[in-house]
Amino acid sequence: TVPATQTAAIVAERGGSIVVKTDHPVKSQAQLAPGECLVKLHCTSVCHTDLHAAFGDWPLEAETPLIGGHEGVGEIVAIGEHTTESPVKIGDRVGIKWLADSCLNCEQCRKGREQNCDQAKLSGFTVDGTFSQYVVSYVRHVTPIPDGFDSNAAASILCAGLTVYRALKYSQTSPGDWVVLPGAGGGLGHLAVQYAKYMGLRVIAIDTGAEKKELCQGLGADLWIDFKESKDIVADIKRATGGDGAHSAVVTAASGAGYQQAIEYLRKGGTLMAVGLPGKATLDASIFFTVFKSISILGSYVGNRQDAREALDIAARGGVKCHYAVRKLGDLQDIYEELKKGTISGRVVVDMTK
Ligand code: 8ID
Ligand code: ZN
User: Ligand 1 mean position to 223 CA, how many Å?
Assistant: First the structure.
């Protein structure tokens, strides 16, 4: 049976701190609209986006008060009455991603860019997210979790994994090509190293510190560059790639600095794939060399329902493994501070069953 109240971490106002409440209401089955489902969460991981949202870093404003979180895994315990054509049923284990819902009927949705739908609902940004014991989501957009795939291991695939999987898929690279990954030791980045290796790419991991170095090298990065120690990142990359530069850069750094020099270290015909979301930074790229070198500059924003299934499928078969520490909801504020400082390697998963 579903309780009337639950524990939830609430952002009361933009830029404010998180308040963990133990008596937050849970919607009853009768309160669910058609198409909505209630998911009892097993766990949820923490994405850098959650703190951009909580601290108000972006030019878009998050709803407040709101529950953050968009990498949740749990079990469907109720489905709204009069729901037609539900691809999931009560008892199914599903994932909640950033894109909670989209209309599936506009030009963007029809073209497979569901994340660009004008009606998109965003978990932990425009609708309550997963830092709670129960979350209301949408039957047509929740992602089935493959049988036998551990919930904690699956959680970060719902945003970090899916996002870098899609970004690499559209990075215009082929097996054997060199990809540079600034931010490689973070949540998105360490999964990008693995999806890239899975796709047959050669990886240049850029981040900082001994722990992230060990993580990236352990995951098979072909070259490690510490951005705080390197005297010349462009020269390091050119040397490693036989003088030509890399075929692509998939930037998951949460800072504008992570984007600098990409046009310089990409080879002719190379692709800069923007993923990391510093709120105010601009891309400082030479127009002349972007044209002269035939560089493509692309943005990649999470992914659609199919990207989510593909990213999960690869992870469930052991192709990539999230490296995470398990912590509790009461630590969320501390986790945000640590992410801001850059001291977390890989991901943090919050266990919602305790
Ligand atoms: O759909 C999208 N495009 C999407 C989806 C999910 C997340 C975008 N994001 C965004 C987040 O909002 C955030 O801005 O991607 C960024 C990274 O998210 P994350 O992986 O969850 O953050 P993290 O774990 O803190 O990792 C960031 C890493 O970047 C490194 C840090 O050391 C950290 O390991 N980094 C920084 I900050 N500056 C760097 C630099 N100049 C750098 N690495 C290399 N060079
Ligand atoms: Zn995210």
Answer: 19
317: left (phi over 0), alpha (psi -120 to 50) or beta: alpha
Q: Tell whether 230 and 284 lie within a shared domain.
A: yes
State the ligand closest to the CA atom of 275: 1
pLDDT tens across 146-181, in order? 999 999 999 999 999 999 999 999 999 999 999 999
Q: Give the atom of ligand 1 at the shortest distance from the alpha carbon of 274.
A: 3
Q: Could you tell which of 123, 194, 277 is best to mutate to test the pocket of ligand 1, judged by most ligand atoms within 8 Å of the CB?
A: 277
Residues 120 and 175 in one domain: no
Tokens 């190379």 -> residue: 270
- Note the pLDDT tens digit of each residue in 37-66: 999 999 999 999 999 999 999 999 899 999
Ligand 1: atom nearest CA of 209 is 32
Q: Residue 50 corresponds to which amino acid?
A: D
What is the domain-level CATH number for residue 214?
3.40.50.720
Tell me: do 109 and 170 sit in the same domain. Answer: no
- Does residue 37 sit in the same domain as residue 105? yes
> CB–CB of 86/76 below 8 Å?
no
How many structural domains does the chain have?
2
| Domain that residue 324 falls in | 5-158+303-351
Which of 174, 92, 91, 161 has the alpha carbon at shortest distance from 316?
161
Q: How far is the CA of 217 from the centre of ligand 1 (A)?
A: 18
Q: What value of ipTM does the predicted structure carry?
A: 0.99
